[in-house]
Amino acid sequence: MFVSSDIDLAQILSEVLEEVRLSVDRDIIGADLLYSLLSAPWLYSLLRVYECLEQHSRNVPNPCLPHASRLCQELMSSLRGLPAPSSEAQELYALLKKPHMQELLSAHDSVAQRDYAPVLPAVPNEMSDNEEAVRIVCLVKNKQPLKCCGEGKPSHWNSLRRFTMEKLALARQFGSEDQSPLPSPGDLSSIPVRNLGSLSRYQSIGSCNLCCQTTNFSGGGLNQSSPAVCDSVMLVDDEHYKCSPVYPRSWCSPGCALQSQTAPCSPIFQRHRSVDATRSTHPALRFTKQQSLDELRSTVCTVANSMDTSTSDARDLRKKMVAVTEKMTDNMEDNAQALSLLVEVVDKLQDLIIANKSPDLSRTSRAHQRFQNWPGQHIAPSKKSSRSTPNVSSFSSSSSSLSSSSPSCNVDSPNGATIKKDPKTGNIFIARVIHGGLADRSGLLLPGDRLLEVNGQKVSGMPPEQVINILVQSEGNILLKVIPNSPQPINNQATLYVRAMVDYSPLQDPAIPCPDVGMAFSKGDLLEIVDQRDNRWWQARKLYSASMSYGLIPSTNQFRHKQRELWWSQPYQAHTCIRPCTPPALTSTHIQQLELFKVLVAIRILLSLPSLQPDLITLKKLESELSILMDSSCPQTITELIKSLDAILSADDLGEVEFMDEMRCTETDEEDFEFVSEEGENGEHMQGLYIGMNSQLLSHSVFRMEIDSLFESAGFRHSLRVWRRKAYSKQNPSCYSCSINSCHNILANLYEDVVHFQPHIDDPPRLIVLIGSSGVGVNELRRRLIKINPNTYQGPVSHTTRPQHLGEKNGREYHFVTKEVFAFLVVNHKFFEYGEHNGHMYGTSFDSVKDVVDSGKICVIDLEPHCINSVRTKKLKPYIIFVRPPSPESMRQTRKDPRFLANSYIKRYFQDKDFEEIVEASRAMEAKYRQFFDCVIVNKDLQDSCMDLFTAIQHAQEEPQWIPSSWFAPDGS
Ligand SMILES: Nc1ncnc2c1ncn2[C@@H]1O[C@H](COP(=O)(O)OP(=O)(O)OP(=O)(O)O)[C@@H](O)[C@H]1O
User: Fold this and answer.
1) Which of 141, 150, 377, 672 would give a disulfide with 228, using CB separation of 3.0 to 4.6 Å?
2) Residue 401 and residue 867: Cα distance in Å, rounded?
3) If you take atom 4 of ligand 1, which residue's CA is the nearest one?
4) Are residues 891 and 775 in the same domain?
């Protein structure tokens, strides 16, 4: 499709051509020559380029007012000059004088005066004469001016430097800016170093009106090195779940380019497309003395600095690259040596990257070959025989030409297309075009195109493997004859940003059409979904990831489909561990049952403790009465729990006994305990919910299980929680591992839509939620945070049914309510967390959080992770910080100070097993819930952790964050 313009030059040209053709018919001398000149494809292409550029210059946004500040100054001086200014004039003057107005205008001017025209890159120096057409495609893609030769053109190194800088800048900025159809840094990173000169800046492919017209180009005058479209096509048997790379990728094969050739006039509008799979045809880079040696140094240093230095090999490489800079002098010869060294480095780097892919790779030959082609040597056009066969190994081999400027580039990313066979007709089709790959960028292969021939060989009816084989065995140019799919499906869906809620590995997914084009992701990863046209497989890439290439991910439909399959394939299991995620409503019957149950547990424990020598007969009688009472009205679970209680009590469990002894010697009396648990070490009020440790009854595993069941959202203290973990390990492991959330996970979403949210100064502060395994220091951090800055941070005031103590004030320490009121609040879902301690109910309500937020303070709470969903609401917009423990060894060092451990309510030092347990519990918690975490703090040194917490909270309130888009939905909660 042509670019519409007032003067359609191509149209004029075709009219002129028609005239000339008539002259040819009339045998006018010279008309022949003129005709052939005018019908040259490059002329058409040039005209199109011209028109594109024309259109661009017409559409460049021009500010109406480039100097608003100046106008303001002028206006102000005019106002000042007024002999008797009216009140309006005075008001206007005062308004204009305001600093923020001045700043606003100055900001406006900066934007208005800035030149947003693209920086157009240089064309590669070495291009043969017949490369104009594709070069033109590149030019248009990059909006490059037609001036490509002559003095003063940027050197390759200059381009490389600029390219590298931009790539790094892009990587750094990425995510901090609005993510509107973003360039694919993967595109940048897949550019061969020799072609960098032509790609100094990425331009949206969508802006190219010419790409889709390339199939109209005629003649064999297409080049073999189109930098912007250089890549490979991976042809894959989509349907049969097989895939195979068939020819090198762009930076694998510098000369590789997808081309279109003369389209024969055919009734079915056949389109020939040819893929040039040759390699090593890259033109000689004439590294003459650099215009600026600093430029050269900075190029190499930038590349070196951007390298991942996690491995010793990479570190060595980096050192070598830095050494390169030292070798650079004004002397041309040295300069060439430096560059040779760099070539070596580049080769090594490539070897490293492709080591896993191609162990049989001949490094030396490649290095040798490349070495020959570097500075000071003229590169002879590669002979056909010397070109590698584009088979699988050459695919890897050729990837050795990876640019040293893109160490993070993932060589494994298949940027191409896949094929499939229609089982009914036997026709071979292009199944999928991977976003950002060669086919996509060139626009020459599109999904649904029917593949007729490969190198003149008809492929219809062939098994896809055979087609792949033909391609694999082809040498040099591969000519594909395709019938374009018409009409082309249009991807009119906007880019979608999501957070992955599960882990996914394509290699373990038998359903994926081609695992090689699949993209693995983990819980919490941010994904940019660019193509949702396929109902089952979307195309996406990971944000903030080293690999910027796109790949297939399961669509939500596909995920649901899999869930259904899984559901039906599994035998029915009616186990009790499937419980609702939201806490059950607590009725007065529940409370009554619970009280009964507690007494029953108490009796059974007393019965099991011979040292207490209880009145056995009385107790047994009481127990049986209670059992009957419980059995008649209790839920099934309670009856089962009683049975397991018996089992546990009868078991000779040393660990348990040890624990009980320990508790006996460390516990304080009830009143002390309660007082301390509510008042912090420094006397300040401790918010939250604690279950007493003073009674062996309460600490018993069965009781805890019941508490969990009924009050699963309750918060617990360190020691009880540690102990609870111990108790859990004694339960039926299958049931335990299939707790609420794991069961619930089956029904979980695959992705959560997110938006980039920039908090506004007028927004209410976000709720800060601290999460961590018991004993990691969540309470300590929260307490310190509030203590250090009570005017900024505050915890919510909880509700309780316990009587008010002397000196306590309703609404300050607690909201004191009756049991009925509490039950009413529970039933009406007013609490996001509630539980029972010592016969009294405690709960933290949404309203109490709102009170803190309304007071302008930042509300900080600690929460059990399974309650996360209850606070993830539009109103609270929680920022969830996970407190992770350091290593057990490190905790041994930092937690040995008695000041920390000898506090009044734990009353014992940490033991080694506690550290192990904390780390283990933390790992499990993180594995399960990390998709919800906005930030992770490792609580090693308390001071540092506090600082980290401050910084994180500040970040939460000021910096842009990815948050669920439902928080913006009008009906979101
Ligand atoms: N970084 C640290 N260095 C030294 N001691 C610490 C550190 N963090 C926490 N502590 C100490 O460890 C003990 C447990 O901390 P804290 O009570 O905050 O744990 P928790 O995660 O809230 O667990 P629980 O909720 O079970 O109480 C406290 O005595 C606390 O002072």
Assistant:
1) 141
2) 52
3) 895
4) yes
* Euclidean distance between CA atoms 490 and 315, whole angstroms: 46
CA quadruple 822, 828, 834, 839: dihedral, nearest 10 = 30
Task: Output the furthest CA–CA distance in the chain (Å, rounded).
Answer: 130
Q: Which residue has its alpha carbon closest to ligand 1 atom 10? A: 777
Q: Which of 456-460, 566-570, 821-825 has the highest mean pLDDT?
A: 821-825
Q: Which residues contact 659 (CB under 8 A, 6 or more apart)?
A: 723, 726
Range of the domain at 784: 754-792+857-967
Beta-carbon neighbour count of residue 617 at 10 Å?
A: 8
Statement: the pTM of the whole predicted model exceeds 0.80: no
Task: Look up residue 697 and give its amino acid.
Answer: L
Atom of ligand 1 nearest to the CA of 940: 1
Q: Are residues 422 and 465 in the same domain?
A: yes
Is 477 found in the same domain as 536?
no
Ligand 1 contacts CB of residue 938 (under 6 A): no
Name the residue with tokens 């946004």: 61
Q: Give mean pLDDT, residues 284-290.
A: 34
Q: Are residues 452 and 504 in the same domain?
A: no
How far away, in angstroms, is 784 Cα from ligand 1 center? 11
Distance 720 CA to ligand 1 centre (A): 14
Is 561's pLDDT higher than 70? yes
Same domain, 478 and 545: no
3-state secondary structure of 453: strand
Task: Answer yes or no: do 439 and 506 share one domain.
Answer: no
Distance, in Å, from the CA atom of 657 to the CA atom of 665, rounded to the nearest integer, reads 13
| Mean pLDDT of the 580-586 span | 41
SS (HEC) of 730-760: CCCHHHHHCCHHHHHHHCCCCEEEEEEECCC
CATH number of the domain enclosing 469: 2.30.42.10
Comparing 729 with 165, the larger pLDDT belongs to 165
Average pLDDT on 614-619 reads 58
Give yes or no for residue 942 CB within 6 A of ligand 1: yes
- Cβ atoms 140, 48 nearer than 8 A: yes
Is 782 among the domain residues?
Answer: yes
Using the 8-state DSSP alphabet, how is residue 203 labeled?
Answer: -
Last residue of a domain, one of 539, 568, 597: 568
Atom of ligand 1 lying closest to residue 903 CA: 29
Indicate if 456 and 502 belong to the same structural domain.
no
User: Considering the domain boundaries, does residue 360 fall inside one?
Assistant: no
Query: Is there a domain that residue 867 lies in?
Result: yes
Q: For the chain, give the mean pLDDT.
A: 62
Point out the domain boundary residue: 490, 525, 546.
490
pLDDT tens-place string over residues 678-688:
333 333 333 33
Q: Which has the closest alpha carbon to 57: 124, 138, 145?
A: 145
Residue to substitute in 779, 892, 925 for testing ligand 1 pocket (most ligand atoms within 8 angstroms of CB) = 779
Q: Are residues 314 and 341 in the same domain?
A: yes
Phi, psi of 147 (to 5 degrees): -75, 110
Does pLDDT of 591 surpass 50?
yes
The answer to whether the bond into 487 is cis (omega within 30° of 0) is: yes
Q: Is 769 helix (H, G, I), strand (E, B) or coil?
A: strand
The arithmetic mean of pLDDT across residues 89-105, rounded, is: 88
- Give me the number of domains the chain comprises: 4
Residues 442-467: pLDDT tens digits?
666 778 888 888 777 888 888 887 88
Over residues 178-229, the pLDDT tens digits come to 333 333 333 323 323 222 223 222 222 222 222 222 222 222 222 222 222 2
CATH number of the domain to which 775 belongs: 3.40.50.300
CA distance 776 to 859: 21
Which range has the worst mean pLDDT, 13-22, 374-383, 806-815?
374-383
Pocket test for ligand 1, best of 837, 887, 900, 938 (most atoms within 8 A of CB): 900
Whether 324 shows a pLDDT value over 70: the answer reads: no
Q: What value does the mean pLDDT take over residues 792-820?
A: 90
Q: What residues form DSSP beta bridges with 542?
A: 527
Mean per-residue pLDDT, 151-158? 35
